[in-house]
Amino acid sequence: MKAAAYMRVSTETQTVDNQLPDIQRQALVLGYPHLAIYAENESAWRVGHQHELARLLSELKSGQHHYEVLFVWSLDRLTRQGIPAIFELINTLSKYGCRVISLRESWTEVTGPAYDLFLALTAWIAKFESDRQSERVRAGLARAVAAGKGKRGKDKKVRKRRVQKHPGKFSLGATAF
User: pTM above 0.85?
Assistant: First the structure.
């Protein structure tokens, strides 16, 4: 029986080392002592940036590898792009005889009528969390730019001249500060 593990972290300062031991333990419990490892430091938000996931799918499609199970830490490690994206990915893996087991979503180990509902709900939550985090980052950047601490697009000298030219009013897109 063959299995693989897909692990992803979003930044270079993070590591998949937190995910691997738990995935290996669960794989062993389920009878998969050996795992092919696919790991990367890429955002799940940007399409085309998950090179290891693309390699895994390509190897399945070409018949180079066949895995019965793909272990993941959590489903949001695969994608945070919402319901259609997770269904497309899960269906593609399924087409090649590979089911996904998530350590954080224990319901992925069983099948049944509620599976699609839980999958959709989990995908919606992942996208919602990602969108909210992006909103917080944009708000923090806008606040930093308004305070003269950040940089938006152009160098600080250009931004400083713009602020001096229009004191009390600094535009960042459609928002005026």
Answer: no
